[in-house]
Amino acid sequence: MIVAEGLVKKFGAVKAVDRADLMVEAGQIFGLVGPDGAGKTTLMRMICGLITPDQGRIAVLGQTPEQVKEAGGALGYMPQRFSLYGDLTVKENIDFFGGLYQIDQITINNRADQILTVTNLIDFKSRFADQLSGGMKQKLALTCALITRPKLLILDEPTYGVDPESRKEFWKILYQLNQEGMTIMVSTPYMDEAELCHTVAFMIRGKITAVNTPQYLKEHMKYHVLEVRTDAKDPMIMDDISGVFDSAFFGDKFHVMVEDIQYARAAIIETLGQKGYSCLSVEEIRPSMEEVFVAMVEKEVG
């Protein structure tokens, strides 16, 4: 579906994308993960043919991005800030975007009803876009991107700033579309969403640093994760313990990233005891994508 090789894009002295390679296979939900400013949006816009790389090659559906864009319809793109028209209704927004692709009105009407049913907006066709909640606006933006029935859907942080329940509903829709045969490439700042992708690419400072399944990335992370239960409530108490790379506090427990389990366990128990706290348990647990991300950033930046 997508093949990108050696992509480079500079904006002045800033190299937004630096020799990026990736492959998105048909039928995948492919996640692009990275901190703000990593180059995710620039990479996606090059794939969509909206900006031209300074170096490298891109093939989308076996064609250049420009050819795909000129043909229209095969690729659906939902940018980070999708321009809905607030003074138009849900249906009028869909009519407008369908008209941009020269789709006849009967086809737009039929497709709109089908997509609005999937996105649970069918009862809001006459509501003005400005009167929709944040989650509903994102669903409308998705509906507009789907009006051409694309084979490939590219979404740039589609759930950013949306409440958790709306994010969950949005991902149910993506899974349904994927099960119906659509290939999806999605960028996200949320690690729980990265877990839902078939394949994840980490992007840091313009570089693709790792590409694999979430399961593989967790199993091959450099660090071990210990869950520490203690009566200590200071979120920073683990930070200066020898052998601890990173820690997170979850109210009644800490998740601690370490390289040497035995050494770190002993250091944690000793330090907590010296400070007058009890260490109730220290157990190794499976890492989350959040912890994989922290380790990836440390590797590239640290």
Structural write-up:
- This protein is an alpha/beta fold and 302 residues long.
- It folds into two domains: 2-213, Rossmann fold, CATH 3.40.50; 222-286, Alpha-Beta Plaits (2-Layer Sandwich).
- It contains ten helices and 13 strands.
- The chain has helices at 40-47, 65-71, 90-100, 105-118, 134-146, 164-179, 191-194, 214-219, 261-274, 289-301, and strands at residues 2-11, 14-24, 29-33, 55-60, 75-78, 152-156, 183-188, 199-204, 207-212, 224-230, 244-249, 254-258, 279-285.
- Helix 3 crosses helix 4 (105-118) and helix 3 (90-100) runs parallel beside helix 5 (134-146).
- The radius of gyration is 23 Å and the shape is globular.
- It starts with a strand and ends with a helix.
Write a short abstract of this structure:
This protein is of the alpha/beta class and 302 residues long. It is built from 10 helices and 13 strands. It has 2 domains: 212 residues, Rossmann fold (3-Layer(aba) Sandwich), CATH 3.40.50; 65 residues, Alpha-Beta Plaits.
What is the CATH-assigned architecture of the largest domain? Answer: 3-Layer(aba) Sandwich
The best one-word shape is globular
In helices, the fraction of residues equals 25-40%
Strand adjacency order, main sheet: 5-6-7-3-8-9
Q: Give the structural class.
A: alpha/beta
Low-confidence stretches at least 5 residues in length (pLDDT < 50)?
none
Q: What oligomeric arrangement do these chains adopt?
A: single chain
